[in-house]
Amino acid sequence: SVVDDMEKYDRTALNAGGDSRTDGSLGSALKTILFFSVLMITFPIGLYFSSKVYVFEATLGMSNRDSYFYAAIVAVVAVHVVLAMFVYVAWNEGSPQLREGKQD
Q1: Do residues 90 and 82 lie in contact, with contact meaning Cβ atoms separated by under 8 Å?
Q2: How far, in Å, CA of 21 to CA of 19, rounded?
Q3: Torsion over CA of 84, 15, 102 and 91, rounded to 10 degrees?
């Protein structure tokens, strides 16, 4: 899944080295933002056009006007999915390091 790929990517970036722990977390955060920014642009637009042409017009036989409406709904749902994934990754970013370091 995308989240697993991002975690592998983050671990690789952290293991690559850096001057301090802050540089690694800053680089990781920037890579996460860049990844989700690209995903936010490409995923909904790609789903919009592919669902319009292949699902709604070709498979379901909808008119051109109706397929615009339903493809827009698919794109909006895709935006929300990407946002939810970003919030999940951002929320959990750095959590294992904090849990390991905290021993009461």
Answers
A1: no
A2: 7
A3: -10
pTM of the model: 0.67
Contact of 71 with 52, CB cutoff 8 Å: yes
pLDDT tens readout for residues 8-37: 655 555 555 545 555 677 888 899 999 999
Q: How many CB atoms lie within 10 A of CB 98?
A: 8
CB under 8 Å to 79, separation ≥6 — which residues?
40, 44
**Would you list the DSSP string of 8-68?**
HHHHHHHHT--SSHHHHHHHHHHHHHHHHHHHHHHHHHHHHHHIIIIIIIIIS---HHHHH
Q: Which of 90, 62, 56 is nearest to 74 (CA)?
A: 56
- Summarised one tens digit per residue, pLDDT across range 42-76 is 999 999 999 999 999 999 999 999 999 999 999 99
CA distance 77 to 101: 38
